[in-house]
Amino acid sequence: MSDGRGTTAVDVLIVGAGFAGIGMGIQLIRRGRDSFVIIEQADDVGGTWRDNRYPGVSCDIPSHLYSFSFRPNPEWSRVFAEGREIHAYLRACVREEGLDDHLRLNCALSQAQWNEDDARWLVRTTRGDFSAASLVIATGRLSEPKVPLIKNLDAFGGRWWHSARWNAKVSLVGKRIGLVGTGASAIQILPRLATEASEVVVFQRSAPYVLPRGDREYSREEMERFAADPGTVTALRDELFAEAERNIGARQRRHPDIDLLRQRALDHLTGSVHDAGLRGLLTPEYEIGCKRILFSDDYYAALQFGHVRLEPTPLNRIADGSGGKRVAVAAGGNSYALDVLVLATGFNSTRPSIAGHIRGRQSRLLADEWSNGMAAHASTTVHGFPNMYVLDGPNAALGHNSAIYMIETQVGYVLGALDHLAASGADALDVTSEAVHSYMRDIDEMAQDTVWVQGGCTSWYRDERTGRVTLLWPDSATSFRERLATFVPASYEHLLRRRR
Ligand SMILES: Cc1cc2nc3c(=O)[nH]c(=O)nc-3n(C[C@H](O)[C@H](O)[C@H](O)COP(=O)(O)OP(=O)(O)OC[C@H]3O[C@@H](n4cnc5c(N)ncnc54)[C@H](O)[C@@H]3O)c2cc1C
């Protein structure tokens, strides 16, 4: 609905069409709430699974768990689906749930401003203005590629790109490739890259813990059984969830859980890498779980190919080599002549750029509110930003279970807030600063004895400015759902619009 000045008015405006934005949209439609749009800056839906197109990209939580509980998919082709299959699943969700009419693609949020007078958000986008009673931020936490400081990178004679912006136009056959990073993306990339390249150098800042993955295709019979009896899919999902959930004990440094998990990873290393020198370089120097635990059955094997070399220090700079050729120089001093650099170096996760574009009450910028790190009540609402909900943002990620379970939990919380708002007679809900502080105190307390704080590593789960755990929910997925199960109005100031 347009107001004649070209501003489209909706009840809810969702920013981002990844799992979170799509999940929110589906639940609004299913509840008969038709007045909403999803704006998406790219030309397609899918978020993570649209952007990450590197060879070998796939989920590392089993697909039957890494999908919406309300849209089970009996046709997952394998235990850990590849990125394009997950992307296709999300597109099917959009199409089949009737979201197309609500989608505005190529539409980036430029600025959102809370207007006290009419208690609404004015949202300026690259495709026009919107006025929304509620604003849902679903812009993801692993969506802004991080390029580390590599001195003179621009002088690198060859091509380079980030893993989340894969350049498929450049053939890697016969090329000398530097793979920078040894995190979740890098260990999926290496085995595929190694089959094409003439030489690969893997630049490692710290060794990851790697567990066996156990991926396999589902047989036709299994898929037919899943399709014929939806109860079998639910049962499998429940089983996978319970299995993942058991791993929280290790993250909380409970014994023997953490000892058993560490041993499994070290056994995998010992069983896969026979050279003691290489094994030493691949042995992590921090506690298991402090950084994301990785899953692979072919990473260690690929590292032992004759044309693959592990450089145990990070890529530091590009310099002039002999004959005027540029070389990539590692922090340890070794230099390598390379044709292509692939930066599998992760994402800016603790300081989301969207926060620089959202102004709440008294025009306060969200980035200023979060200048000491992200903080939100119920991992979802921020004081001074009424009727705004952040999905998959502060303290909503997990190290041991599915992000989709967390997103669904938050979507349920937002629906509770919207229902309460409609019933309350108020125009807006602003979470109190006491509620935010009390929640953050609980987070700090829960995090205190976990591997994320005590494990002796730096990781993207923690804010680099304060060391606080700001990305993760530092407990079980079940406890997150319990905590957010009921929307508690007492945590919110109820606001009325000024212009009546
Ligand atoms: C390679 C990879 C593998 C992963 N595997 C797993 C896994 O196995 N299990 C797991 O639990 N998690 C995994 N994750 C985490 C994953 O990011 C989440 O599971 C989930 O996909 C996040 O969904 P989202 O909707 O919150 O964010 P995203 O998928 O990042 O979507 C955010 C969307 O917002 C859009 N957007 C951003 N800014 C704006 C703006 N200003 N205006 C308009 N639109 C905007 C983006 O274009 C994007 O489409 C993985 C992440 C990566 C990178």
Question: Can you characterise this structure?
Answer:
By secondary structure, this protein is an alpha/beta fold. Helices cover 30% and strands 18% of the residues. Strands 1, 2, 3, 4, 5, 6, 17 and 18 form an eight-stranded mixed β-sheet that branches. A five-stranded parallel β-sheet has the order 7-16-8-9-12, with helices on one face. A hairpin with a 2-residue loop joins strand 5 and strand 6. The two termini are 21 Å apart. The model has no long low-confidence stretch (mean pLDDT 96). The chain binds flavin-adenine dinucleotide.
Strand content: 15-25%
Rg of Cα set: 24 Å
Q: Portion of residues in helices?
A: 25-40%
Note the total helix count.
15
**Number of beta-strand segments:** 20
Mean pLDDT: 96
As residue ranges, the low-confidence spans are none
Termini separation comes to 21 Å
Structural class: alpha/beta
Instruction: Name the shape in a single word.
Output: globular
Q: What about the largest sheet?
A: 8 strands, mixed
Q: Which kinds of small molecule does this entry bind, naming each only once?
A: flavin-adenine dinucleotide
Could you give a quick summary of the protein structure above?
This protein has 500 residues and is an alpha/beta fold.
Topology, element by element:
Blueprint: E1 7-15, H1 19-30, E2 36-39, H2 48-51, H3 83-96, E3 103-104, E4 109-115, E5 120-125, E6 128-137, E7 159-162, E8 176-180, H4 184-196, E9 199-203, E10 210-211, H5 220-228, H6 230-245, H7 248-251, H8 257-272, H9 276-281, E11 294-295, H10 299-303, E12 308-311, E13 315-320, E14 326-330, E15 335-336, E16 340-343, E17 358-359, H11 366-369, E18 388-390, H12 403-424, E19 428-431, H13 433-447, H14 451-454, H15 477-484, E20 492-495
Parallel strand pairs: 1-2, 1-6, 2-3, 4-17, 6-18, 7-16, 8-9, 8-16, 9-12, 10-11
Antiparallel strand pairs: 4-5, 5-6, 13-14, 14-15, 19-20
